[in-house]
Amino acid sequence: MSDSEQADDRSYAVVRNDEEQYSIWWADRDLPAGWYDQGVRGSRESCLAHIDEVWTDMRPLSVRRRLAGAAD
User: Fold this and answer.
1) For the segment 34-62, what is each residue's pLDDT rounded down to a tens digit?
2) Comparing C-alpha atoms, which of 60, 37, 22, 34 is closest to residue 11?
3) Which residue intervals define the domain MbtH-like in the entry (predicted)?
């Protein structure tokens, strides 16, 4: 079995940046600058499933705000 086929038993955290973009990060490591823990931890699959539920608009926050301002 190759390394890529082995089960991933690490714990992950759901993180979000100031542009409201989501990602996952290893739960036992310090977050990179500009990313914030969202309080959701678990397997890679469960964290990605949570992101699928909450990240419904993939556009960065700055783009959404600009487009909302143009519509006004």
Assistant:
1) 999 999 999 999 999 999 999 999 999 99
2) 37
3) 3-53
What are the structural domains, with CATH classification, of the chain? 8-71 (3.90.820.10)
Q: Which residue do the tokens 């959404």 mark?
A: 64
Both tokens assigned to 35: 């990313």
Residue whose tokens read 């993180």: 15
Other C-beta atoms closer than 10 Å to the C-beta of 39 total: 7
Residue pair 46/27 in contact by the 8 Å Cβ criterion: no
Please state whether the predicted TM-score (pTM) of the whole model is above 0.70. yes
Which residue has tokens 């914030």? 36
